[in-house]
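pinned: reference chain
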Amino acid sequence: MIRPGLRWWMAVSMLLGAILWFVTAQSRVVGEEPLEQPRAKDGLRLTVANVRGDTALLFTMSPAGKLKFVRKVPTGEAADLDTAAGVRWYAIFGGDPPGCEEFTPSSSDYKWILRAPE
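pinned: its structure tokens
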């Protein structure tokens, strides 16, 4: 038989364990990045909205002509990305039909909507 004081301590420790598990599970869902990313110093924030039927793979092109993978943007989602004016961005789609779009943000044009071809 478990003593009453020990039973209370076991209940409290189980409750604390459940709270700790819940908090760590939530932090895994949110991820390492903060929910609102700070704006880049002396840069722009490019907003990319993918309303096309395929996942977009986003790349930037260096002045030397090399592509650098940045991130995936699934269908129906949007992403805020730090960039600078004049950086060339490419979105590549692997669906049917496959496709590619190019965008170069400026201080007045920093929203990019990825749409299906007409």
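why pinned: The longest helix spans residues 4-30. The chain is about 25% helix and 35% strand.
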